[in-house]
Amino acid sequence: MKIAIEAQRIFRRKKHGMDFVALELIRMLQKIDTQNEYYILVASGNDKCLTSKGNFQVVEVGGTSNYFLWEQWLLPRALKRIKPDVVHCTSNTAPLHCPYPLVLTLHDIIFLEKKIGKNVSPYQNLGRIYRRFVVPRVVFQARHVITVSDYERRRIQEGLPSASGKIATVYNGVGVEFQVIQKPDSIVYKYIQDRGYWFLLGNTDPKKNLKRTLQAYAGYVSLSVSPRPLLIADLDSQHLDAILQEAGIAGIRSLLYVPGYISHDDLPYVYNGAFAFLYPSLRESFGLPVLEAMGCGTPVVTSNTSALPEVAGTRALMANPESVGAITEMMIRLEESVDLQKAQIEYGVGRAKEFSWENTAKRTLEIYKSVSQHG
Fold first, then answer.
1. Which helix (H) or strand (E) holds 276?
2. In this predicted model, what pLDDT tens digit does every residue of 84-130 receive, in sequence order?
3. How many whole angstroms separate alpha carbon 15 and alpha carbon 203?
4. For position 60, what pLDDT does the model report?
5. Could you tell me which of 159, 179, 143, 173 has the C-alpha nearest to residue 109?
6. What does the alpha-carbon distance between residue 101 and residue 81 come to, in Å, rounded to a whole number?
7. Terminal CA-to-CA distance of the chain, rounded, Å?
8. For residues 99 and 114, is the Cβ–Cβ distance under 8 A?
9. What confidence tier does 203 reach under pLDDT thresholds 50, 70, 90?
10. Alpha-carbon distance 368 to 137, whole Å?
11. pTM
12. CB 198: neighbour CB atoms within 10 A?
């Protein structure tokens, strides 16, 4: 087979979740498949995290930073030169007119659902409008749709009936770098001088539940005998201060560490240095950071909603993400019980091992073969 994989944004320095999923899938396909011919189509960028090798050719399709023009104009032109047997678009959207058999990874359909709060940036709003227009049309033409959890598969079937009969769940994996590290301090100290902190990803997307999580942390500070600091990754200090003022919890500011962007290479060390990881999101199609933290032997406090129970498993510490008090209660419970901490560490390491990129790649390759065989 001649397989073209769209991985538009993997060369950008500040990657997001879908970028890492595409990158890890491609890296594993390089390891397990030496037979088929691959073309990896990417936009130009500074982080050359993938190189041509053997039967894999990386093709930089540059010329514009505009997402719409890249996907709807430059990508189809590149595909026309390749003439692939299968095209795999990895991040929810695809060209509206694709004459080649299309596999679409649809991570979620949050853009079709009622908004949770207000998007912070015009970019987020434009992205939502673009997906609402494009996704129903490309799902209709796709030969196969991949999504990342059974929860999301059911949501897609309800929201986009044309996906029924051609959609499958293919779980994400956990990178081998997310493991227990005995001495993470040399990296951790770049961001915080303490060990045993709470760790939070400071995404401003309303579904990530940042304001309630900070309120829950403030409740924890008021109840804990010796409150642990909170390290918040990827959050602007000005935005944080605005949330604290709005919520009336500016008094916790001295306990918050906001170093900005934490590189993906450093994340395993930062997880390892943490006492626990907070991920009480309102809506997730998968929730990969939960498994990454678990793989590092870090207890997790997460949500009992959407796909998170499916991914975190029945023995995970889960709270109602809309209840500030419930999140606080779970934090205090974890801090005060050494036995619970030990049990969560053991459980989490075992749970993370159930998800591998090799399984993801093998299942995806099966789908490529099926699509190719049926023309």
1. strand 274-279
2. 999 999 999 999 999 999 999 999 999 998 877 665 567 677 888 99
3. 13
4. 95
5. 159
6. 15
7. 11
8. no
9. confident
10. 21
11. 0.92
12. 24
Give the start-to-end residue ranges of the domains of the chain. Answer: 2-172+356-373, 185-352
Name the token pair of 115.
């908004």
pLDDT digits (tens, 9 = 90+) for 272-296: 999 999 999 999 999 999 999 999 9
pLDDT 10s digits, 137-187: 999 999 999 999 999 999 999 999 999 999 999 999 999 999 999 999 999
Question: Token pair for residue 309?
Answer: 């129970």
What three-state secondary structure class fits 334? Answer: helix
The CATH architecture to which 185-352 belongs is: 3-Layer(aba) Sandwich (3.40)
Q: Is the pLDDT of residue 250 over 90?
A: yes
Could you tell me which residues come within 8 angstroms of residue 123 by beta carbon, excluding any fewer than 6 positions away? none
Find where tokens 């993906």 sit.
264
Nearest residue to 175 (alpha-carbon basis) of 93, 97, 256, 268:
268
CA 276 – CA 344 distance, rounded (Å): 10
Domains 2-172+356-373 and 185-352 share a fold: yes
Report which of 102, 107, 87 is spatially closest to residue 137, judged by C-alpha positions.
Answer: 102
Tell which CATH classification among 3.40.50.2000, 3.40.50.170, 3.40.50.720, 3.40.50.300 matches the domain 2-172+356-373: 3.40.50.2000
